[in-house]
């Protein structure tokens, strides 16, 4: 059985959902290469800073401080080349990149010779904040901003307590640093998150049936494509089509509101048998479907046992019968088509209706017909 992996609370807190969303947006908009280029240039800029300040009076002094800058130069150049030459990073690599950037900027800032130079160097944390806010979401950005604020606060506090600098005198340096490192990324992230949620809401509504809350035809096809996009599973894709018997008569006699109630009840009954990773959808009218993959010999019998509870539903004390048709096709078949499987399941379902309804039938491709399961 295939799995549509849901994001758990831990994954959402770590920004995996945001990373996946941003990655998809960059890929669909064909901006992925441009994003990698900008990130690489930022790394090269950090490496360049490490080189230039070696010749500046405010730069590092001593072997230890210069070694820190040399490490920043080398790592910045290497990681910048990685963004240019390697494929799009995994989520874990993106998080590791942020950790490297934060620690490297903090180390370079701490080894500068003057307080002003240290505070000015922290401005590079703002660039990392833009990366985090766009790619990894608000929660990880909050962690990054807290780290940046601690670095700026630590440098300022050390200058005031140890070097007896004036807190007011440093205001024009540490306040802009806080604004750029903390406030600007957080404000930008609020705008990004608002846009992300708006787009996600539109996308969900485009893939969901408004009445039942199930996927619509477009959403079902998209979900199946995601599952089969990579390595095709060695399994049969199975589609069960469910249709309420004499639904038109119900609408004509009791009104469309009664029909809607019946559809909602049918959708709830379908949800009750759906297992993790399976797809439930409404194709239109009163036709609901269940899509799953079966990779073991006894899987079809087990599925038919579950589908049996769908053949009768109770709506306001009134029992309605439901016809169910089932069809399957190997996902590895050269001419595999989800629409063909649905069409075969439809044929089996209509065969049940012609026999009186209220039962489940399986489509047999070799005879182009249906048989009632025993």
Q: Any overview of this molecule?
A:
With 374 residues, the chain is an alpha+beta fold. The chain has 2 domains: 9-206, no CATH class; 217-371, Reverse transcriptase/Diguanylate cyclase domain (Alpha-Beta Plaits, 2-Layer Sandwich), CATH 3.30.70.270. The protein is 60% helix and 13% strand. The chain has 14 helices and 7 strands. It has helices at 9-13, 16-28, 32-52, 63-85, 91-110, 115-121, 124-135, 138-161, 171-207, 217-228, 247-254, 256-273, 299-307, 338-354, and strands spanning 236-244, 279-284, 287-294, 312-315, 318-330, 360-364, 369-371. Strands 1, 2, 3, 4, 5, 6 and 7 form a 7-stranded mixed beta sheet that branches. α4 (63-85) packs antiparallel against α5 and α8 (138-161) runs antiparallel to α9. The chain is elongated, with a radius of gyration of 30 Å. It starts with 8 loop residues before the first helix and ends with a strand. The relative contact order is 0.08. The model is unreliable at 1-11 (pLDDT under 50). The chain crosses the membrane at residues 34-55, 67-84, 91-111, 117-136, 141-161, 167-192. Keywords: Membrane, Transmembrane, Transmembrane helix. It holds the Pfam family GGDEF. Residues 235-365 form the GGDEF domain. InterPro entries: Biofilm_reg_signaling, GGDEF_dom, Nucleotide_cyclase, Rev_trsase/Diguanyl_cyclase.
How is this structure best summarized?
The protein is of the alpha+beta class. It is built from 14 helices and 7 strands.
